[in-house]
Every structure is written in C-alpha cells, then in structure tokens.
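Re: duplicated header lines in exported structure tokens

Our pipeline writes sequence and tokens for each protein into one text file. With two proteins the header for the second block appears twice in some exports. Here is an export where it did not happen, for reference. First protein block:
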Amino acid sequence: MNKGYLFVVGIIIGIIIIFAVISVKNKKNRAKWSGLAERELWIGERKPLTGRHTLESVPVVSEGDSPGVSYSMNIEIEKWLHNKDTEFRELFTHGIGKFGELKRNDIVSVAIGGPKNDIYVDINVRKFTSTGAEIPDECKDLDMDDDGKTFVTHKLTSIETHRIVLKYFPIAKYFHLAIVLTQNRVDAYLDGKLNVTKIFDGDILMPGSDTKLPILYFMGEPIKGHMSNFRYINKELNVRTVKDIYKHDINPNNNKDIIKDEDADEDLVTDEDENKCN
C-alpha cells in the first residue's frame, strides 16, 4: 500500500470526522435554543404566510429587575410589489389586538410595510408616575422588598404605541428576524446583526408581571411567502446568542448570506388614549 493512497484515505477520514463534529455541534445548539424557548412553531418546516394561527395563553413572566422576552424566526417573502395603496401586512401580534390597533395590555405587533420592503414593529410603552393619593387596584404597579412584602411604587398614567422600522429586508430568499424586548428597550436584528435599538421613556414589560397573552399570526391580508422556526423565548437574548441562533438554527433553503447594515428609521405613533388611571 503506497504512501499516496494512505495520504488520500487519511484526508477523507479527516473530512468525515470534521463533518461529524460540526453536525453534533449544530444539533446541540438547536437543542439549546429549543430548551430556552417557551413556545416553538414550525421547527424545520416551511409554512405559508396565509391562514390564521394562534398560540394560546403565552406567559409574559417578567422576573427580577431586568425582565425580557425574545422572538426569533426565519421568513421568506417570495414576491413583494411596491404598492402605495397597501399600508402593511401583519406577521404576528403578541396580544389580543392587531397591527395598528394594539389593545392596552398587548406587548408588540410586527408587520411588513406596504410601500417598501420594510418591517414595522409596534410596541406598547406604559408610562408611570410616583405614587401619590390612593390608587385603584387595577392601576397599581407592585414591587417587592427584601422581606418579600409587596408595595405600590408607581401608578400607570398613559399607554403609547411606539414604532421602529427595519429597512429593506431581502426578497425571494430566507432571512432571519429577531425582536428582543427588555423592560424599557427594543433590539431588532436582521440576519444576526443588530439593525435597530431604542430605549423608551416608560416600560414595555413590568417586573413581577404574570400576564398571559396569545400570539396571533397572519390575521390580516395574506402574504406570498413562508415562515419557519418561530421561537418565543421568555428572556432577553444578547447579541451573541441571537447571532448563534441565526448561524445554527435550521434554515430551509440553506441560505447563509448576511445582508449589509442599513440605517434604520424610527417613527413614533402616539396613542392619546389616556386611561382612567390619570
């Protein structure tokens, strides 16, 4: 048996071992993301962006001083015509309302913009003031001291819906979208890269909350495209974890392109619906 033959066999065996190690590592990473997820949808399966779908009673459990929740998914828009008469197409809403009409207890709603291939993210932000006179129970924000006793710290004065915009998502190929919400900040990612971040003067999520809300999908006009690997994770994901999910999560068309960073516009949609807690 000559040395050249042994050399070739050695290279082939080495390549097989490398691929086996990578495969095991990817499986472990996918298992890790599955373990983090509070809810998963269509893992490894392409589903058309048509037909309504609901994840019932998804908990928004905000623990500690830095509550957070995260949404991660792959999306493919097969064809998107620039249409000035189309305002938006809704992807999902975490709450009982819909995009453009969030209810007071809703968390977030995500849609595709009509005139351009942009993604709109609407977020309910609650403003509080210091405790003054006696406050109705429904307006209290409870906190906990070191002895485990609860006490009133603030009262709710208004709810505003803020909007951020992720510009120019890619057409006719899969891209990865991640939305991360903390108590007062939103981070939005396209293909593993931070695209938009914004800090609010108010709270998105409140510590100690035990709210349960549905996640509603595709409640508006149908979209010609697909979604896969939707994960709702009941914690704040950092930049590295989002990038790891993007790299290691199952991608139905094996697309690994990373789009260029774009400057993101921000807009504010003010809801003047002052509630009875003023």
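Second protein block, exported in the same file:
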Amino acid sequence: MEGCHPPRGLNFNGNMDDNWRRFKQLFEIYLIASSNEAKSSEVKVAILLNAAGEEAVEVFNTFNLSAEDRKDFDKVVNHFEKFTTPKRNVVVERFIFNQRCQEEGETFDVFVMDLKKLVKSCEFVDQSDSVVRDRIVLGVGDASLQERMLRESDLSLERAIDLGKTAELSKIRAQTVQGQNVDFVGRRSVPQKPVSSHEANWSNKDETVDKSFQNGEKARMFSSCWKCKRKHVKGKCPAYGKRCHSCNNLNHFSVVCRYKDVKDVVVDESEDNSDYYVNSINVHHIVKCIELASTLKEWNKTLIIEGQPVTFKLDTGV
C-alpha cells in the first residue's frame, strides 16, 4: 500500500520493555497495512530487521539460533521479547501501581491510561478492572469527585471513568463561563464622580466645542486646562469667576484645587528655662538684636540663634 511506512526503528535506550512493545505493535500494523502479513516467515524476519535498525541487527546476531530458526519469524520475535523484557518482581510492580496518584495538572485520561499500563505487569489476572477502579478512586486529585465516587456502592470501572471525564469537562466549561463573566465586568463603565452644577452645564458644551473645531475653526485649544481640567478655547475657561468649594478661592474648580490637600503645620515650641554654661560662641552673623541692656549692672544681650531668641550674659574677661 502506498504511503504505508514501517516503524522508526527499535530504541534500546530507556525502558526497552516499553520500547519493544510499542515497536512490535506498530510493526504488526505495518505488516497488515502493507499486505506483507501473508509473506513467508523468512521475508517477515528480513522486514522486521530492516525496520528495527542496525542496533537490532547486532542484537539479533547474538541470539543462539540455528540457521533454520533465524528464518522463523515467531522464534526471532520471542528472542527479542526475552532480550528486552527484564525479569519482573511482582511485589515491586504492585507497589508502584498502588502508589500511583493523579499528579497536579495531569488530565484524568492520562492518569487512567497510565494505571491501565502499570496494571499489566502486576499479574492481577481477572481482577485488573477492579484494582484499576480502586486506584482511580483512591488516587484521583479532585476531592469532590472522590466523594462522588465513594457514594456509589456498585461503582464499576466504566462508571468511575465516566464520572471522572464528566467532572473534568464540567470544570473546564465552568472556567470558560467564569472567564467570560470577568471580562464582561471588566468592560462595564465605571460610575463617574458627581460634579457641581456649573461643571455639569459646561460638559454639555464640550460637544459644541469639538464640532466647531472639527468644522475647521482654527481657534487655539487647551488640551487640559489646570483650572477646570477640561478642553476649551483659550480665554473661555468655565471656571473663571467661580469659587472653589475646597479652598474658597476664585477661578478654579475643586476637582483641580491645589490647596485642598495642604494641612496646617503646627510647630511645638516648648519653652525651656534651663540654664546652660557656654564656654565660647563664634557668631558669624547676627540676625537681629532684640535688646541691649547697657544700663543694667549685668551686661546681657539677646540674639536670634537658629530662629530662637537666646539671652547671653557678656563677660569681658577683665
């Protein structure tokens, strides 16, 4: 059959058991699709080695087979299976199976498929479906789905798989709907801040200004006036003559008031009457001389130091 291609060689790296099973299945499909299934055993051995690749041919040469057996397709396949399939420890295989849980981000289908793959090497014989069902219930990552499965006394493997797929699909649909709702809320208009009557009246004039500008009027426009926070013709500010509700000053609206956030600064100037002895003072600049008590027995002078009046007693050293 045209367009039918053999499998891409037998990989001897990694898990050779899985690699061989996958290669064997693809090769059997290829034999049927290419109408080579009815060919002689010797021809099928040649097709097998050609598809498996050079490394597989080297392995084939190590098989202890007679010249006649090397032409027997079934015997060659059996030797490849023995070579690629390690001796299994059923206890270990069952331990690996019973430890398998659905990982974070793993889809339910992938989880179930891996369980079915692991159970083949556990030798449960006729109990494979029941143990896979139990592992699904105990290892599923969705707690609500697990509770749903535990409520059914006669839960079968098919029913467990159906519940898992339905729950996963419902969650995906819910996320899609919720995402659309969030987008709808995000596109809703935000309520505007209430404005004063003269601001509201001016907003109705914006369209007239815009239309006149679009009709070719060359008047200079302010893109954003700091007094009214609007666009208008120069010299036609609607805030002119209006009193601000925040600072009570004229010619601007409260929405752009530059003084409404200014707070009174209170300076705590506590008095300190403590006496200090100063060894020496270097005066670079006398800001203000408040008092010169030349008529008193003691010579005192009050100076402004760092913005504070300080009285000094003068000592000439005589």
